[in-house]
Amino acid sequence: MELEEEKTKRDERAGRGEKAYRDYVAGLPSYLAAFAEPQHYERYTSENQAVWRFIMRQLTRLFKLKAPEIYERGLAKASIPVERIPRIEEMIESLNEIGWGAICVNGFIPPAAFMEYNAHRILPISADMRTLKHLLYTPAPDIVHEAAGHAPIVSDPNYARFLQRVGEIGAKALSNRHDLRVYEAIRKLSIVKEHPHSTGEEIDSAQKELDEANGQRARHPASEAQAISRFHWWTVEYGLLKHPQRGMLMYGAGLLSSLGESVNCLEDRVTKIKLDSDCVKTDYDITDEQPQLFYVESFEELFPVLEALADTMAFRVGGALSLEKAMECGCTATAVYDSGIQVSGVWTKCLKGVGGEALYIGTSGPTSLSFGNVELEGHGEGYHAHGFSSPVGRPLGADTPLSQMGDGELAGLGLVIGKRARLSFDGGVTVEGLLRRIVTKEGRHLLMSFEDCRVRGSKDEVLFEPEWGTYDMALGEHLVSVFGGPADKKNYDFIAKKSSMRSPLIAYTEEESGVFDFYGRLRKMRESGGVRKGSEKELEELYESVRTKARGNWLLPLEVMELIQKGPDSASLKKLKERVERDLEELKGQDSETKSLIEMGLDLAHL
């Protein structure tokens, strides 16, 4: 009866948590909520929980020495327990107190979406849990990396501001189709490698796809998205902090969540380089340990390096060169006129003047016009389904920009609603038609719409014909910014698509489920006070079953050893201890990794 009541209470708590999480997701912008996944806490096996506990006990001990002081405090602030996998709703509640949030996602998400989350002060958390086979390092994002790696450091205000700023800048980076192909290949390889039932042939095939995608991308100039990804890797994921007394400390989530590399990275064979913007010239391999790492002496030093990188990006440079970068990328990008009007689409046209300035620009395919990142009414993808084009500059004979003219000045150029007008621009572009409408926002004219309109280039080439419909002309003299993705992400078909490939549910065999039962029984024994005098036989019988049905598993004997060490000083437990020690010694012979993990576990079991 008591067990039934406990289960009922547990189910009720889980139901409240799931509702709280759904309500939280419902409050997010739709283009971010689209990536949200339930955590499905009930799918974690007792082995998953044991793997989490083993990793966290090791990490928390190691990082008392090799992580910033904020890390240990941050675990508590983000509701990251050592004994069990964290619940997403508990993390959200705690992170909200420091101005952040979290959301569960399925594996790797598109980099643009990842950056958007950070810009909104949200941590995307892959809810998957690494397997025992990949305990030291997993190629796939998992809850150890996302929760225990990223979340604790966010409690440092300077680092939190930096992470948000990386997101804001990264969300504006121009990406190309090669970036998308590499992302899909990485996602596939990570899923295949982490799945316990994948064949060698499947892994080799996925690796070949990634190699081919990387090879193709390497034959083209690195995109802004690739550069910001490298910067993110060498700071947020693999950054070092040089402390004046304690030496090199780890703050990157990739290091803070890797039992193997967190130790190896501090060895002399790994080169340590002072961080500067040239770090983006150094590529990385997600499947191997890094031969070099970059360090700063304080989180404040991260900002000027990031801003120096941002100064090279199209969203700050603007002009024809930035638009041509967007054209080379071939993905959705937004050009911003000095009037404030934003044009989002795939850019295919940029006619330039003798000084290299943009004179006439255009997109192909669905295009959206916005102001202040909000789509102008009636100017979405459906209306501009076949593209958009417009001059850039001041018409000849005008003393002030069209966007700033009063009615009298407009009339002086023949621009009166209901009347025909003819405008000539530098470079020979002419616009002639019946003015029907002027769109104005915050005292600035943004757009003029003409009917029966002809637009011609310097050599009388056709840019627009009357039978094509209404000609909408954006107003502005310069392109002040060009950035990746659409301006209005709520209404435009967002550039970051949710991948159709998903981490599959693992179908466990009856034998594997039986092993999980052993973990559950050991956990119950530990949580109920351990082995008491007179109850040693229960542990002895359990271990005999482990030896018979889970031979080769090294973590179960370690959990038994922990219970023995904390149990009564009895002859039967001493005898059991000798047997477990012999078995563990034999298991060490499997490979060097298993030997290392067993020794780490024994070290903790004897504390």
Keywords:
607 residues; five-stranded antiparallel β-sheet; six-stranded antiparallel β-sheet; alpha+beta
Beta content: 15-25%
Taking pLDDT < 50 over at least 5 consecutive residues as the criterion, the unreliable ranges are none
Name the overall outline: elongated
Give the overall pLDDT as a whole number: 91
Radius of gyration: 30 Å
Number of strands: 17
Quaternary organisation of the protein chains: single chain
Count up the helices: 22
Short description:
By secondary structure, the chain is of the alpha+beta class. Helix content is 43%, strand content 17%. The longest helix is centred in the first third of the chain and has 25 residues, at 2-26.
Write the layout of secondary structure elements.
Blueprint: H1 2-26, H2 30-33, H3 46-66, H4 69-77, H5 88-96, E1 101-105, H6 111-119, E2 122-126, H7 143-150, H8 157-170, H9 177-194, H10 200-218, H11 224-237, E3 240-243, E4 247-250, H12 253-256, H13 261-264, E5 271-274, E6 292-296, H14 302-310, H15 314-317, H16 319-329, E7 333-337, E8 341-352, E9 358-371, E10 374-375, E11 389-391, H17 407-412, E12 420-424, E13 430-441, E14 444-456, E15 462-464, E16 471-474, E17 479-484, H18 510-527, H19 536-549, H20 555-565, H21 571-587, H22 592-605
Parallel strand pairs: 1-2, 3-6, 5-6
Antiparallel strand pairs: 3-4, 7-8, 7-17, 8-9, 9-10, 9-11, 12-13, 13-14, 14-15, 14-16
Helix pairs in contact: 1-5, 6-8, 8-11, 8-14, 9-10, 18-19, 18-20, 20-21, 20-22
